[in-house]
Amino acid sequence: MNETWAQISDLAFEAALAGYVMALVCYAIELASTRGSDAGQIASAGSARDSAHGGTSTLTRTGGSGPADRDQIGTLARPLAPWGVRFGRAAVVVTVVGAAANVISVVARGLAVGRLPLGNMYEFVSVICAVTTICWLIVLARTGARTLGTFVMLPVVILALVAGTRLYVPAAPVVPALNSYWKWIHVTTIAISSSILLVSGAASVLYLIRGRLERRQSAGQRDAAATVTRPRSLLGVLPSTATLDRIAYRTAIVGFPLFTFAVIAGALWAEVAWGRYWGWDPKETCAFVTWVLYAAYLHARSTAGWRGRRAAWICVLGFVSMLFNLFFINMVVSGLHSYAGLN
Fold this sequence. Notes:
Blueprint: H1 3-32, H2 37-52, H3 67-71, H4 73-77, H5 83-113, H6 121-143, H7 149-165, H8 181-220, H9 229-237, H10 241-274, H11 282-301, H12 309-331
Helix pairs in contact: 1-5, 1-7, 5-6, 6-7, 6-8, 8-9, 8-10, 8-12, 10-11, 11-12
C-alpha cells in the first residue's frame, strides 16, 4: 500500500466535502433569496412602464465623458445580477471544484491500494458522491435548472459527512469474498445507477413542491389579498413542473437499466461467493424494493392516468428506499454485506 497516495486521497476527500458544503449553502441562499425577488421584479416593471409612457431614465457615471466612457455605456447600463443569482453561480463553480477533488480522492485511493476503490462503504459512498455530482452538473448544463441544486446536494453532503466520519476506514486490501471480477462489474454499476437515480428522486421531490406552490397560488388568486409573496417568489425561481418531470423521467430511464444490470450481476456474484443467487439478505431485499418502486414509476409515467403527481410520489418512494439502503441498512442492520467496512 502507498501511504503517500492514501494521504492525498484523504486530503482530497476533505476538500471535496468542504466544497460540497459550501455549494449547498450557496444553492440554499439563492433559493431563499427569492423571497425578495418580487420587489425587484415590481421595481423593474415600474421602470418599464415609465419608459413606455414617455418617461426618461438616467445613467449615472463617474469620471469624464470621453470616448472611452461612451464605449462603456452598454456595460454600465447592464444591471448587476441579483445577489441570490450570484450565489447560485458561485455554487456551480464550487460544485465543479468539489467534484474534481472527489474524483482525485477516488483515483488516489485506488492508486494507494492497487485496486478499484470500491472495497468498503467509505469508498463506495465516496464514488456515489462523485458520480451524483457529475450527473447533476450534466443535468444542469442541459437544462439550466440551478435551483434543483439544493435538493441534489443535500443528500450528497449528508452522504459525504457520513462517509468521512462514520464510514471511514484506512486504505487496506479487501477481504477474500470481494476478490472476484464480479466486484468490478456489480459495485461499479450499482454506484453509477444509484447516483443517477438519486438525481431522479430529487427532481421528483422538487416537482411535488412546485406543484403544491402552483395550487396554492391558484387558490390565492381568488382573493386579491391572498396573493402572498412566498409562493410567487419560489415559483419564480424553481424550474417548471414540465422541466422537473422531464429531468426525473430521463435520468430514471438511464439509471434504471443500469440498476437492473447491477442487481443481476450482484446475484451472479452471490452465487460465486456464497453458493446461492439470492438469499433475501437485508441489503438484497431493500435493493429489490427499490427496483420495484422505480419500475413502477417508469410504468406509471407511461400510463396516462398515473402521470404527474402520482408517478412523482412513486419516484420519491424509490428515492427514500435508495437512501434507506445507503444509510440504515449499511449502518444499523447486519447481514452478509457487513463486510463493507462498518459492522
